Amino acid sequence: MIWVSWRQQRTETLIAAALLALIAAVLVPTGIEMAHAYQHGGLSACTDMSTSTTCANAIQSFNSRFQSTAGLTAWFTLLPGLIGVLLAVPYVLELESGTFRLAWTQSITRGRWIATKLAAMIGVAVLAALAMTLLITWWRTPLVHLNGRMENSVFDLEGTVVFGYVLFALALALAAGVVWRRTVPALIVAFIGYVAARVFVDAWLRRRFEKPLTATWAEFIPGAGGHPASGAPPAALDHAWILRQYPSDKFGHAVDVVLGHCAPAASRCLAHPGAVYSHVVYQPASRFWLFQGIETAMFGGAALLLIAFAAWWTHQRTA
Asked: Tens of pLDDT along 153-189?
């Protein structure tokens, strides 16, 4: 039964491997080039919130050089969904064609058939997620040192969340497939559901996993030479996920600022006439693994429930 399951899963496994090989062909050469540029450009000395002109120029040049490839990796967030629904194809196809009945008449119980099929799919899904995570984490290492990894499309491709995404897409396809028994429509609906869930989490829910923090600091105060002692952003903003940033008074209340001065129509002006403060709402970089755990548990938990539903439906409702 294990050999048969592998044979039936082989095509989809090879397609998933080909997708991973394709992104490796793109990332490995640029990853080596990026690591070389990071090392020989002395950028390791600019990984904190350094305000020196030399570091700022070096980081800007480095980011611009690899911006196109970094932008391309944002599309890789679709790959866990593609791989997940792809790996569900053999299971759903058997239900659609009815060939499962032959296996059930060959002294193979329903429970054993379901367990073996699911184990094969889940095993391949976990290996694919591991390969993808390791590859992209290695490639992004210099960018993470400079820019952090809390932003969307960076957070989504590192840590443990990729495992949750792949399993969630697989589970959605299985749940839709066992009920519908139409492979192509079920996979399309599952992929759309996966994308919708990801957009909802990325755009709205993730930033609310924990209450955001705030910070206010002086950007410019007349009479202090334009460089007040408190003029640098707080160290807590290093590699943080900036949700909102706007001009404010020293209490963090938003104000209208024109050319570095309080606008005449502003309802609240600043402590010093002409002073400019910045107020930031952010999620600190220290919450990366907390957020990874929450999101992995959320998608992984949903995946387990959907897989359990698919197994129950197949066992009890399929004839």
From this structure: 899 999 999 999 999 999 999 999 999 999 999 999 9
Give the chain's end-to-end CA distance (angstroms, integer): 20
Left, alpha or beta for 214 (phi > 0: left; psi -120 to 50: alpha)? Answer: beta
- Total number of residues shown for the chain: 319
Per DSSP, the three-state class of 278 is strand
Provide CB contacts within 8 A for 250, sequence distance 6+: 216, 218, 270, 271, 275, 277
The CA-atom distances, in angstroms, between 229 and each of 225, 233, 278, 281, 308 are 10, 11, 14, 22, 59
Calpha distance 41→273 (Å, rounded):
42
On whether both 87 and 233 belong to a single domain, the answer is no
Sequence-distant (6+) residues with CB within 8 A of 69 are 26, 27, 30
Q: How many domains does the chain have?
A: 2
If asked whether residues 152 and 233 sit together in one domain, one would say no
Residues 73 and 135 in one domain: yes
Domain boundaries, position 244: 213-286
Q: How confident is the model at residue 53 (pLDDT cuts 50, 70, 90)?
A: confident
Examine the domain organization and report whether 277 and 191 are in the same domain.
no
User: Do 157 and 134 touch, CB atoms closer than 8 A?
Assistant: no
Q: Where are the beta strands (DSSP E) in the chain?
A: 213-220, 241-248, 257-258, 261-262, 276-283
- Same domain (yes/no): 63, 191: yes
290 or 58, greater pLDDT: 290
Tokens 């590192």 -> residue: 158
Percent of the chain scored above 70 by pLDDT? 86
* Count of helices and strands (H, E) across the chain: 10, 5
| 219 in the same domain as 71 | no
Mean pLDDT value across residues 57-68 = 87
- Decide which of 288 and 50 is more confident: 288
Q: Which pLDDT tens digit goes with each residue over 205-219?
A: 999 999 999 999 887
